[in-house]
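Working notes for the structural subgroup meeting. M.R. asked for a predicted model of this chain before we commit to crystallization trials. I am recording the input and output together here so anyone reviewing the notebook later can reproduce the run.

Input as submitted:
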Amino acid sequence: MHPDREASWTPPADAADQPRQVRRIVSLFRPYRGRLAVVGLLVGASSLVSVATPFLLKETLDVAIPEGRTGLLGLLALGMILSAVLTSVFGVLQTLISTTVGQRVMHDLRTAVYGRLQRMSLAFFTRTRTGEVQSRIANDIGGMQATVTSTATSLVSNFTSVVATVVAMIALDWRLTVVSLLLLPVFVWISRRVGNERKKITTQRQKQMAAMAATVTESLSVSGILLGRTMGRSDSLTRSFADESERLVDLEVRANMAGRWRMAVITIVMAAMPAVIYWTAGMALQLGGPDVSIGTIVAFVSLQQGLFRPTVSLLSTGVQIQTSLALFQRIFEYLDLPIDITERENPVHLDQIKGEVRFEDVTFHYDAAADGGEGTEGKADRGRPILDGVDITVPAGSSLAVVGPTGAGKSTLGYLVPRLYDVTGGRVTLDGVDVRDLDFDTLARAVGVVSQETYLFHASVADNLRFAKPDATDEELHAAARAAQIHDHIAALPDGYDTVVGERGHRFSGGEKQRLAIARTILRDPPVLILDEATSALDTRTEAAVQQAIDALSANRTTLTIAHRLSTVRGADQIVVLDRGRVAERGTHEELLELDGRYAALVRRDARLEPTR
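Returned structure, recorded in token form:
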């Protein structure tokens, strides 16, 4: 396991372009501009109501109390109470709407990233760790929750409060206002420095969280636990995880402490400002300056205290936005991933599919960023095509077996039909139509794949089967399972078809999982079937049972079998031997034995290995 390995894709050169990034962030909120307009009105109303209180206080101290006007005093007190009530109500409504909008934006982001990844080619997933992908969706988007749910609203709210408060302070006394705002530019500069520092640390922290998530995903899966236990590496894996966690601890501390002392200085200075105002007003009176009433000074200090909270919050929000830009950048990197396999603008849709498959002068090689799906062939020789000038015709309803040494391009050839990869030269056709011209729905209905690596969800047997056909009846499930030679085994389980298969199906044996996968494909009923070494990992007895299921599945279908064991392909209508990406031999089993070439050599090798299986 390689905790430090990252996906090899690199973001476009302009990914760090902050103005463009900010525009993209703003565009996320565009569908909800109506609700945001309501939030803006609530923010404005709340700010206006809140700055009214100091003026009411001034009138109370300068007029109502000194003059003994109890009626006015009652009205002013009632106004203060009403101001508090309205401010609180506006705040609750504002929080409700802004949180709802923020959560919808997070939902849109999660869905967009997941949908983008669903459209990526198989090559992307062969070079990207599962934990890295999960971390982008969970940790990165989750880390943006505060930003998208409250930061934008907080920014508008605090800015409006600051502007309204400064205007009110100027209305009371412009000289005291100048004294209060002298240090504000310095505070803004400090907050920007802190924001840039936290953004850099956040980028490092998210990468470390992704690496740790990938380590957990790999080592704590059923396969990972089996490997660690049987290799005696459990303690080593624990130490490795501890090292990863230790690095994350350091980054978390740095992220939380970045700029704390500088922001603390701002807090101390702003908290001390009332004393400065009292001192300034007192000195002005002593030196014969303009007379300032007690009510004006108290109201001004009240406004200044009201200015303190939104100003500090505004500076902190700026820091938070800088930090969140690092998270947004990581999400935008995934949203900007190039999609290699796309649907044509006006794709061809086939209602009736016969199942004739043709490979016409097919050439294929992996690009420099992708790792091969055939093991060593994707890495050993980048200059040599994995497939080179392959011409094969598979008539509808017939069977083709593809054999050859490891790295010959067998699996790649099969994966070109359902467009898990796209050819780099020539074309693959289905019923005479280039598969690149077909819509994805037609391809999904037309081609079924059963591979050696059987994948089952951590769900019930019935749910796993219905993944192929969500509206399948129980009778259809049972019929498919019977055809796959697995119904009796399922029925004998205590929970029958409601039995949970476990993580990756580990409650079932290899042969049972393969038969479940075959039953799932039978349920989908595709006219073209790709069998990618579906029995190579099974013992001879299990293989015989699975082969019966495969025979039932292959009946009346166009079948392409990628075979390791040649005993499973002798009855194929056509056998093709691939060698270094080229068709070396073709014919029936008997014809190729008579030729006494590569196929005959593979048969002899298979016969020698058979007793050991």
